[in-house]
Write a structure and sequence with these properties.
It is a single chain. With 87 residues, the protein is of the alpha+beta class. The protein folds into two domains: 53 residues, no CATH class; 33 residues, no CATH class. Helix content is 56%, strand content 14%. It has a two-stranded parallel sheet with strand order 1-2. The radius of gyration is 17 Å and the shape is extended. It starts with a strand and ends with a helix.
């Protein structure tokens, strides 16, 4: 089995945020430090580190997924995960 640590960042525009505006600012201020810390940790345990951002390929995938699987949402996936943990 191959081990990897990954992070995923979506920079949500402030006008679309409902709450936690201060957290968004603090995350943005510390973005580079956080990535470097995650990379150092991955290096220290000998695993690959991958960082993903919201970009055009991600947007294309989201559209494809919504077009092909309109009944599946993140909430559905969480319910499935919870169910699988019980069997």
């Amino acid at each position: 089995m191959r081990r990897v640590i990954y992070s995923f960042y979506i920079d949500i525009p402030k006008e679309k945020l409902v709450s936690h505006h201060e957290s968004k600012d603090k995350f943005a201020d510390n973005y580079e430090w956080l990535l470097a810390s995650q990379q150092r940790y991955a290096d220290s345990i000998g695993v690959e580190y991958r960082h993903f951002v919201k970009d055009k390929p991600f947007d294309n995938y989201v559209k494809w997924f919504q077009d092909n699987y309109p009944d599946i949402s993140y909430y559905n996936m969480r319910c499935l995960d919870s169910y699988l943990e019980t069997i």
